[in-house]
User: Fold non-specific serine/threonine protein kinase from Danionella cerebrum.
Amino acid sequence: MPSPIPITRLLPKDLGLEFGACSSPVSSSASGSTLRVPPNRFHGKIAHRLWSSVINWRELQALEPIGSGGFGTVFRGTYLGKTVAVKKVKCVKNKLASRQSFWAELNAAHLHHQNIVRVIAASTCTPAHLSSKDNIGTIVMEFAGTLNLQQVIYGLADPLPTDRCLRYSADIARALQHLHAHHVVHLDLKPANVLLSEQGVCKIADFGCSFKLSSSNDTETHLSEIGGTFTHRAPELLKGEEVSPRVDVYSFGITMWQLLTREAPYEGDRQCILYAVVAYNLRPCTNRSVFTRSPLGRTCQKLISRCWDGDPGIRPTADQLLDELSVLM
Assistant:
């Protein structure tokens, strides 16, 4: 069953196609917030890529629920004989937000990277026997395991040595490096959205809040609605300022702090925390022993402090972040 998903959600933009315009809530271009979709004539390389916008429903079997969130449920199943994760995006009270979440999930669908959960196929059409009235779309992804860093940090009794924390951090930085090179900002980076595979490799997942930035340096992007998790949200987003890849670096700083301390970033009233982050530069405490007892800990503390600096210009890029982490490992 073919899907009405615009093909350029799943294809790179350098294929030399003729384009027509179509409304999209989660993309931007120099001429405005529109998605460019090709006319219906494909051949060669493009025709080969079209399989990612079609789900062969007969090959999707043995769905078993493994998790759920605000916008849907994730299942483990088999597709074309391989274990996959299947995310069904449902319509909540805010229908626009639900649709935006589905389209945003596909912002990184054309990217293949070892530290990013890969999209295999997606569709807004669902067979009657699998569909429900609140279903918006289905996404088939690689199965990266059922364990996330939130569970590793707070749910496991096993020690979490500094060298392993640095390895996990470097995995996340590699993913950000690849995303930002392709003008994709995740906007909801946190331990719960980083899966840990059976091989011990971290993979960024859940792109439901992500945004595709314009490749033009002349275009500023501002979000009318802020998604993501308040504890990891950069202050410039709270102030309605320009969105840039540095917002993910801010979230990375909070995440790395959690890995090293295994503590919650903040305690208290949500609104008070948000106000203090913007007005008083509130950040998680860095006087923990993990940061003070060794030169390595002090170096990590300085790096984290730069990542969550209130001035985005002081934060390192993903490239710089990866370089500095490589030296520490």
In short: The first helix runs from residue 45 to 49. The radius of gyration is 20 Å. The domain at 147-328 is CATH 1.10.510.10 (Transferase(Phosphotransferase); domain 1). The first strand starts at residue 20 and ends at 23.
